[in-house]
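Can you give me the bound-state structure? Components:
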Amino acid sequence: MSASEEVEVKASDVEVEASRLVRIVAALVLIVLSATFLIGVFDIRSPKGLDPAGPRFFPLLVTTAWLIFSIAYLVEGLRSPKTAKPVGDRSWFEPVAISGLLVLYALLVVPLGYMLATALLFFAAARVLGSRQLARDIVTSLVLAIVVYVAFTRFLDISLPKGVLGL
Amino acid sequence: MTSLSVAGDLLHGFGTVLDPMNLLWAILGVTLGMLVGILPGIGPALTIALLLPITFNFSDPIGAFIMFAGIYYGAMYGGSTTSILINTPGESASVATAIEGHKMALKGRARAALATAAIGSFVAGTISTVLLTFVAKPIGSLASHFQATDYFAVTLLAMIAVTALVGHSIVRGLLSLTVGLFIGLIGLDSLSGAPRYTFGSLRLLDGIDVVIVIVGLFAIGETLHVASRLRSTPDRPAVLEKGRLRTGYLNKSDWKRSWAPWLRGTALGFPFGAIPSGGAEVPTFLSYSIERRRARKKGRDEFGEGAIEGVAGPEAANNASFSGVLVPLLTLGLPTSATAAVMLAAFQIFNVQPGPQLFENNSTLVWTLIASLYVGNLILLIMNLPLIQIWVQVLKVPRPLLYAGILVFACLGVYSLSGSGYEVLMALLIGVVGFFMRKLDFPIAPVILGVILGPTMEEQFRRALVISNGDASVFFTRPLSLIIIILTVLALFVPYLPRIVARIRGTQPAHQRLTFGEDD
Amino acid sequence: MARSRTALVAAGLAVSLLASGCSALEKALDGGSVAGDFPSRNVEIMVPAAPGGGWDLTARQFQHVIQEDKLLPGRSVSVVNVTGAGGAVGISKLVTKNRKDPHTLMITGLVMVGALTLNQSQITVSDTTPIATLTAEQEVIVVKADSPLKSLKDLVEMYKADPASVSWGGGTIGGTDHITAGTLVKAAGLEPSKVKYISYSGGGEATAAILSGDVTVGISGMSEFEEQITAGKMRVLATTGAEPLTVVGKQLPTMKSEGYDAEVQNWRAIVAPPDLPDADRLRLIDFVSKVNASPEWAEIRKKQGWTEFFKTGDDAKHFIADETTRVQALLKELGIV
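Here's the bound-state model for the whole set.
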């Protein structure tokens, strides 16, 4: 088995991708979040009387468990060997750009209309993900957007925004 | 009801269903179901609800119900396709399938995974329909005996029994689970009406739909993950192992490893479908856990790298759950899942009232529906085995286009839930969480489990306590609850029993085959 | 470096948008529409809930009648589902986004009045322009067939003796079923705050809880329990409307006939956005009256077990205002807000 194939097989989640530092930071974030939510339990309106456990009981249980496991995760991270290195160089550009596209899509799908916004999303996402065949990308994005729009509004009666095209 | 008269009624039902028009409805339903099962977020419940107005124009309700039944199990099967090929389950019942199924696809075994899913669905669908045919009434009465304490005990049992989902690291697995449980807490508390963790937002009062969590964690999370690796892993189609074998898409060992999980999956799916708040998800997770434990005991633990048992079991379980769901629906008029609730509405539109008298009053309708399940299952199999060749072409789509397409359908699925871009942002936020979970090697499935089981568990626990005015002994004084709780304790300790006994005796255990769910 | 700059901009955009607060964001995400004389555009009926429920069914049947009878020549009617918080998301969209627009209508009902109260919403149904109330459904109070409670009086006596001994099972908290329980207890001159109400999602769950003996008494719409009643698995203690209902040839008692002066109807109405020009309002009332008078609509009402409950304009407005006041007070007394 060649080296590249090995990467392919193990790709999803077997390998350790994150460095020790990243894991420690993640553990700290989890601790802060769970502690905040644990404190937040006491802001939950709790009508007294008829419900013995009440709406605070499970949140208390869950956030406490979360906090405990987060601390355990921090300890695990601190104890891990410093030498372990993350695999490969990972790029941050694409995930950030895709996230940005989705935010724009969420904002623009109603004003622009489903077809236009979706065609733009598909086209932009394909380009960000490395597609370099302009004609193919444009055609695919238009066809996909139109087919989906027609199929859903005509056959399933799901209403999708018409937007500027007014169709 | 004697089995002879059952056979007669059923034959009559077959007579009706084999009418060309009705066959057409069945084919249409199965096809539509498969499509919506593949699309993330658009599940069978929504589809049937949207198709209801169209069926007003049907003069004969039988055609409509044949189609609805087709949609349901078509969707159950369709969900497995995307789970296996691109690790993006469309609904919660396919999450367990994704775990091993996608690993199989990565190893070039997509065809075998799809085939075991299709055949498993057929086997489970057929066996559970036989069960529905002959034991509908006794099983149906089960649902009307379950009380809050029993439901709580069942969810507890399920939670404990699926610990195998936790994966390599206990800490990370449990963290995933608690995050899922937390997500389940968000929204208006159903029992007191108090808002919890809604941060003043109206949208959060309803909680976060499990579909958004699934689409976010899987479809969007996976896309972001793949996006970050594009440069280091060049775009090339996944390798597929050689096509047709003499034994179909499955080789001899696949058949040998699949048949028992199919049967066990069926045995789990059917009863869970039949009890309220059982649904299709819990049995898939249970089936996965049991198969995993058994494999480990046999010393052939391929789980985590694409074990076929992990696809065969859950896929059988989710299909079997449908016939299970029909049991209380037809015999008691009790819908135990969202789709069943919509189907109940459909029955009522046609002035058919499911319930104790349905089998007497609308015998033709019921038996035709049951007959259509046999036929529909067969149609599903016949259509899907050849379709596997087409589905696997998805793997050859250039990755930029494939993942751009996944984003489009993910957005469509969550957008159609509420008709607002807000859900898209919510799914993105969860997708970012899913991205980091992948980076940090956290298992994803326990989150879904937490979102699904958490709220039920809390609701039933608190209902039981309200009803008993705070007396916690109710969990141990009802025989049914007590039995389930004892089973739970066994599920916790039995796997370790041989070791404990051996420790006491001071010897090595002879064989470690004692495990929960053992049946041979 | 152009790439990483783009990434930075995108990241900045994402973060600032997420941070700019939910309500501002919700505004941007939903879009709006413009006004004009009715009917000068296609009409949209908003269902403030997911497909498949009672409001959705009402809207889709309404749409069906308009199309069948061609009541809007040259224009189409579409149904749009805006889910969230028992209708709070839908109504806030109608009130803030569609002011003065007669082409966006919304289905509402008693359930929304309860949900808005429970959510402590600033918006009430009275903030819309009521066009007409359409239908009403009676509630029914049942027990399991082998329950020792034989009449509504037995139930009230049991509650009087020990409120904690009665578990009331029904739908969403603050919904019609819960309101019914509170109304009955109040009409009997007892304390509603002691009502041990257990909410279930959907009729199926509640039916199972009644049949398994988990709860003492169940409350829901007639359609949920009808089959069990016909099959003799449940006994009706009372229905809640003014007119007695008949099931399998037997006339059922009402709360009134049992001596408790109260009435609860799960009504549904159709409303328009606020600040509607009077001319448009009158045209809409006229239009909805046409639908209501259609034989098709009568047929649908019969099929669904809805009774006609048609009040238009100011009558509808006053009715909705009265119901709002009553429900707000009752939910307070039930101790949930």
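A couple of observations. Residues 209 and 445 of chain B are 16 Å apart (CA to CA). The first helix of chain B runs from residue 3 to 17.
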